[in-house]
Amino acid sequence: MDFVDKKLKRAEILNLRKKYGNYVKLTVDVENAWVIVGGELHADGERLLLERGSNQNDIWGGGISLPERKIDSMAVLNIRPRLGNDNLEILEPTVRKKFHDIIDKYFKE
Q1: What is the domain partition of the chain in residue ranges?
Q2: Fewer CB within 10 Å, N side or C side of the chain?
């Protein structure tokens, strides 16, 4: 897994693609704008973000198809009835927008 907290250069994205394939799982702290790329489960990324000091309520999962730059915000990690999210998809529009904006910014190249 790789920690990302800034816009990636094209070469860095290509290295991630070589390492993880065309589609990569992403676990995102939407408040600190931290991203964990890769991992077998989003929970693996969540653990790393918690170790860095993230608040669990700010961590959400999804992925990106690198060739198409298509972002999704679906993960088992996102099922959080206590936060009003009883779905794989991030339902709260504000949280979903933050999630997408961070990924779009970091993977823009």
Answers
A1: 2-106
A2: C
